[in-house]
Specification:
Blueprint: H1 2-17, H2 21-24, H3 28-40, H4 45-51, E1 63-64, E2 72-73, H5 78-81, H6 97-131, H7 143-149, E3 158-161, E4 164-167, H8 170-186, H9 200-209, H10 216-226, H11 235-265, E5 271-275, E6 285-290, H12 294-304, H13 307-315, E7 321-326, H14 327-337, E8 341-343, H15 348-353, E9 359-362, H16 370-376, E10 381-384, E11 397-399, H17 407-422, E12 438-442, H18 446-452, H19 455-458, H20 462-469, E13 475-479, H21 491-502, E14 505-509, H22 511-519, H23 527-531, H24 534-543, E15 548-550, H25 557-570, E16 582-586, H26 592-603, E17 607-610, H27 620-634, E18 638-640, H28 644-662, H29 675-683
Parallel strand pairs: 6-7, 6-9, 7-8, 9-10, 10-11, 13-14, 13-16, 14-15, 16-17, 17-18
Antiparallel strand pairs: 1-2, 3-4, 5-12
Helix pairs in contact: 1-3, 6-8, 6-10, 6-11, 6-26, 6-27, 7-8, 7-11, 10-11, 11-25, 11-26, 12-14, 12-17, 21-28
Length: 684
């Protein structure tokens, strides 16, 4: 009888809300939690997506609110779009749709680059504090990585004494690297150090176009100045500055963050993990770390695994502690520790609705303010930790501020707060933890890929290049990005990836796309024989890797840039990233960070396709500049394709175009290549 009553309430709620859970997500664990939310009257993002529709002018990028004379809204008519009527639209100051759309686009790049690069700045500050021995909670775990990146900053790793050369003290190297890395944010002239990590031909393209970044903060500030009312009014010039700022994100802020995190916490290598809401356990303290910065989450991992905290949890009646991740913090603790992932962006409210989460610990980026309201409906304690990101709403919200100088003690305080809250679970609220959880293999840094392709002594990208040249692998797809409540949760991610795999395109992934793939079972070596074309399946089986390589969090998209550079350097596939049979994709993007990421891939030479929408469609000339003209400049360009099947088809068509340009589009006899053959490829 109770089950029938619950079913009736569920149907009534669906009618009131205007959607069925099965219509908005393909993830069965999320469907169960949405039904629980409907029964218990809890509002989630899926409810708000139904009641609040996007602005049809803003979504086209042609609403300007950069001064108080507006906002100016310039709707695009069908006649203008079809070229049947002259485009005379102007804002009150005379700004054209192209100027307005370019300014709006540029400000998204600036915000996205600022978010990633501010993350990087915090990492650099903590790294320098550790190098100077000002904090004892962080150390150097990967000395080899430090020695590899030091020369990129112009830091010597040896010292001469007379005619002999000796290794420098590792801490002296670390201090100098930290100082030079941190100075990249304030650099006012010259070039960022990492620009020369790119293939020489790619770097020369940037030099020719005058877009090599000078300093991270300078390029972001200059976008904000140029897009102020009455400054830059040439969309081509605005986009050139977008390129500088985006490249400063991808090849400096994000890349520095990734590298220094690897030095402090260890460079990821393949590791097993589990994913989805089923990783939570009813009889244990459940802590979810959510956000993007691993500086604190690393300490929470250490605290949650300490005997002191395990004993404390037992004293409160718990059977242990589960520490699970959400969003990109999840990816960070997964790739280094194998810690479980509770879910991606659109599952953050749903995790709390299980009733089993004792604390959700948040730092920055992608945190919905409504998690505080949902937490108030249960016993969950919401803990904010970053001075940049407080949440005003929520009776159960507390702030425990992170300080790198006392990191482990703060980690213990947070874990203790969660354990204390375990006893506050509400008996009248039943706990429902879905059974869904999948095994996966993650942690494919570009160094790990090199190792897998040749081992410790023969690690090289040459075997990958060989298999692209001989046609077993058609090309490389970088599929990344957020979830978006305007699409069916995870559906476009999975459709695009599966279409690429069955056409022998190997996929590199980060962020929420990586988690969608994990939940769908695509991050295991066994997935190759199920989802891949015969060529890719053969390679994956031989090497023992999944067909989708999880490379980390969204800041770790810099790993994909480095992997692409390694492919170029291995020889036989052109001289620049633009020559590679490769394409990028963000099927369900939603944040400004995605625009910055997309643009640094485009400026690096990658054809990059977005789904959902792109705020440029109301300015046809500006859209043409992004979708066609940039390819003549950088070798990469933007595209917008909402249908995921067509989205994947356009990526494959581009890969085939690049194969043809390289002369490897014809079927070739499969032969074992000797060293002479490889030397010929490298000389091409």
């Amino acid at each position: 009888m109770a089950a029938e009553e619950a079913k009736g309430k569920e149907k009534a709620a669906e009618k009131t809300k205007g959607y069925k859970p099965e219509e908005v997500t393909v993830d069965t664990a999320s469907i169960k939690m949405m039904k629980k939310a409907l029964n218990e009257g809890i509002e989630t993002i899926f409810d708000r997506a139904v009641t609040m529709k996007p602005c049809n002018i803003g979504v086209e990028g042609i609403c300007c609110k950069n001064c108080s004379q507006g906002p100016c809204r310039l709707p695009l008519t069908k006649k203008i779009k079809d070229g049947l009527e002259e485009d005379t639209r102007k804002g009150i100051c005379g700004a054209t749709p192209e100027t307005i759309a370019a300014r709006n686009f540029a400000r998204m790049v600036a915000a996205g680059a600022a978010a990633h690069s501010d993350h990087g700045r915090g990492v650099a500050e903590t790294f320098l504090a550790a190098a100077r021995k000002e904090t004892h909670d962080y150390t150097i775990k990967d000395e080899q990585k430090l020695l590899e990146i030091a020369p990129d900053f112009g830091v010597e790793i040896t010292v001469k004494e007379g005619d002999e050369e000796f290794p420098r003290d590792i801490w002296d190297i670390a201090v100098e690297v930290g100082e030079k890395a941190l100075a990249e944010w304030g650099r006012q002239s010259g070039e960022i150090y990492y620009a020369k990590r790119a293939p020489e031909a790619t770097y020369e393209t940037w030099k020719k176009l005058g877009v090599v970044p000078r300093g991270i903060d300078r390029e972001i500030v200059e976008i904000m100045h140029r897009t102020h009312m009455g400054v830059d009014q040439d969309y081509r010039n605005i986009i050139a500055q977008c390129s500088r700022a985006a490249l400063a994100d991808g090849w400096a802020g994000s890349m520095i963050a990734t590298d220094l995190q690897d030095v402090m916490f260890g460079t990821p290598y393949p590791i097993h993990g589990q994913i989805n809401l089923g990783v939570l356990e009813k009889d244990k303290v459940n802590i979810i770390v959510h956000g993007h910065e691993p500086l604190l989450s690393e300490m929470i991992v250490a605290a949650a695994q300490s005997q002191e905290m395990l004993d404390y949890a037992k004293s409160k009646g718990a059977n242990g502690i589960i520490l699970a991740g959400m969003c990109c913090t999840a990816n960070e603790i997964l790739v280094r520790h194998g810690m479980p992932i509770a879910g991606n962006y659109l599952q953050q409210e749903l995790a709390i609705i299980t009733g089993a989460v004792d604390a959700m610990v948040v730092d920055v980026q992608c945190i919905m303010e409504n998690v505080a309201n949902v937490a108030d409906c249960y016993h969950t304690k919401l803990i904010t930790t970053n001075p940049r990101a407080r949440i005003a709403s929520g009776r159960g919200t507390v702030h425990i501020e992170f300080d790198e100088h006392h990191a482990f003690e703060i980690g213990k305080e947070i874990v203790k707060t969660a354990v204390d809250n375990f006893t506050n679970r509400r008996p009248e609220q039943p706990i429902l933890i879905p059974g869904e959880r999948e095994m996966m293999v993650a942690g494919f840094s570009y160094e790990a890929i090199r190792y897998h392709l040749g081992g410790t002594f023969r690690g090289s990208y040459v075997p990958l290049n060989d298999n692209i040249i001989n046609g077993r692998i058609r090309g490389i797809g970088g599929v990344v990005g957020c979830n978006n409540c305007r699409t069916v949760h995870d559906s476009a991610h999975l459709t695009v990836v599966k279409e690429l795999l069955k056409n022998d395109v190997i996929v590199l992934t980060t962020g929420c796309n990586a988690m969608a793939c994990g939940k769908a079972g695509l991050l295991t070596p066994e997935a190759a024989r199920v989802f891949c074309g015969p060529g890719l399946a053969e390679v994956c089986e031989t090497v023992g890797i999944p067909p989708v390589l999880h490379m980390g969090s969204c800041v770790d998209n810099s790993r994909i840039l480095m992997a692409a550079s390694e492919v170029v350097k291995a020889g036989g596939l052109g001289k620049s990233i633009a020559d590679l049979p490769a394409a990028g994709s963000a099927p369900e993007w939603m944040s400004e960070k995605a625009i910055s990421i997309g643009h640094y891939f485009v400026a690096s030479g990658v054809y990059t396709v977005f789904g959902v929408t792109l705020p440029v469609t109301g300015a046809p000339r500006f859209q043409k500049h992004l979708f066609e003209e940039l390819e003549k400049l950088y070798g990469g360009m933007w595209d917008l394709v909402e249908d995921p099947y067509e989205h994947a088809a356009k990526m494959i068509a581009h890969i085939d175009k690049k194969r043809k340009a390289l002369g490897i589009d014809k079927a070739r006899e499969r032969v074992l290549m000797d060293m002479a053959d490889r030397q010929k490829l490298e000389a091409m």
